[in-house]
Write a structure and sequence with these properties.
The chain has 3 domains: 114 residues, Acyl-CoA dehydrogenase/oxidase, N-terminal domain (Butyryl-Coa Dehydrogenase, subunit A, domain 1); 108 residues, Butyryl-CoA Dehydrogenase, subunit A, domain 2 (Beta Barrel), CATH 2.40.110; 148 residues, Butyryl-CoA Dehydrogenase, subunit A, domain 3. The protein contains 11 helices and 10 strands. Helix 1 runs antiparallel to helix 3, helix 4 runs parallel beside helix 7 and helix 5 runs antiparallel to helix 6. The longest helix is centred in the middle third of the chain and has 37 residues. The two termini are 37 Å apart.
């Protein structure tokens, strides 16, 4: 791994996350994956180690300093090396919190951010059955009623759904305005009219809870709206600009973890009287995997640092980081299974799980086809400015 000149504090974050991954995650990852067990115990360890505040400003109980996105990426990567599903409790909570950080007023931040920093789970709700990549076509509505809004509708595939206490929810306050009629609200678990639907039985990231959210005449105070009415779509887009390097970091961790397992197995496994890593064909495969992992890391870290520097609209680089790293994760995980051979296709070894966990990183927070659209649009806009 290259030297990325992390600060002393960031290096401590990485070492702490690595210790949690090795001591708390590795021993339970297979069981939690098999039984779809949500990792409350692991998340408590993450919170007790003060890692849940690494992307939250200090004045609201966190310790982000001036590198919140980089910090989030570092912790996500290290946890994901052990398990992409368990790490998602942390990463999904960050996604749910970013709208408050980006669009919340001071009173709203004082109300919710210290809770998240101390270990309260958050979630992000925008996806619907007919509004996935096309988020502007959502059907969930929020109708003004005095000092409140009445929310009706549903969300699906929500990470941390049912487990989180705080939810950033997007709803249409004026359908006639299209995307400009979308607003963002913070809801709390237990609000009347806010219920949970089925828990999805997934191919991968099975330790992460993915549920439907249901709103039936859910009354939400107007004070819970983030930003002004109609600014929700921009809040969502800004959130994705900041969060997609985090998805890239999850993918990077999965890829790096798979590479480590492949190298270790290749050193131990013997055929024809010598370790299989002595075969040049396999060495080249591992070398390609290592190059891909390091390239993904360099892109993610550079993007995270650029966002932290105050980049106004880092949509293109953010999409690149997510898209490239998730494609790398899928390829490296599949190649790692090839290194393991037949046993890699069984659940006796953990490597098959890495491939199952990797796939979702190419899909959520915008499919990789959507990311390529974003990258191309950024290129077009940049060319037009010249």
């Amino acid at each position: 791994m290259l030297e990325y000149f992390l600060t002393e504090e960031q290096q401590m974050m990485v070492e702490t996350a690595k210790e949690i991954a090795e001591k708390k995650i590795v021993p339970v990852r297979a069981e939690y994956d098999e039984n779809q067990t949500f990792p409350n115990d692991v998340f408590k360890a993450i919170a007790d180690a003060d890692l849940t505040g690494v992307y939250i400003p200090e004045e609201y109980g966190g310790c982000s300093g001036d590198t919140p996105i980089m910090n989030m990426c570092l912790v996500t990567e290290e946890l994901s090396k052990a398990c992409g599903g368990i790490s998602l409790a942390f990463a999904g909570s960050a996604l749910g919190t970013l709208p408050i950080i980006l669009s919340g007023g001071d009173e709203q931040k004082q109300r919710w951010l210290p809770k998240v920093a101390s270990g309260t789970l958050a979630a992000f709700g925008i996806t619907e059955s007919d509004a996935g990549s096309d988020a502007a076509s959502m059907r969930t509505t929020a109708v003004k009623d005095g000092g409140d809004y009445i929310i009706n509708g549903s969300k699906m595939f929500i990470t941390n759904g049912g487990e989180a206490e705080i939810y950033s929810i997007f709803a249409m306050t004026d359908k006639n305005k299209g995307a400009r009629g979308c607003s963002c609200f913070v809801l709390e678990k237990g609000m009347p009219g806010f219920e949970f639907g089925k828990k999805e039985d997934k191919m991968g990231i099975r330790a992460s809870a993915t549920r439907e959210l249901i709103f039936q005449d859910c009354r939400v105070p107007a004070a819970n709206m983030l930003g002004r009415e109609g600014s929700g779509f921009m809040t969502a887009m800004k959130t994705f600009d900041n969060s997609r390097p985090g998805v890239g970091s999850q993918a990077l961790g999965i890829a790096a973890g798979a590479l480590e397992l492949a190298v270790e197995y290749a050193r131990q496994r013997k055929q024809f009287g010598r370790p299989i890593i002595a075969n040049q064909g396999l060495q080249w495969m591992l070398a390609d995997m290592a190059m891909q992992v390091e390239a993904a890391r360099a892109l993610i870290y550079a993007t995270a640092r650029w966002i932290d520097s105050g980049a106004k609209r880092p949509t293109g680089p953010s999409a690149m980081a997510k898209c490239f790293a998730s494609d790398v994760a899928m390829k490296v995980a599949i190649d790692a299974i090839q290194v393991f051979g037949g046993v890699g296709y069984t659940k006796e070894y953990p490597i098959e799980k890495y491939a199952r966990d990797a796939k979702i990183t190419q899909i959520y927070e915008g499919t990789n086809q959507i990311q390529r659209d974003e990258i191309a649009l950024a290129l077009i806009k940049e060319a037009a400015r010249k």
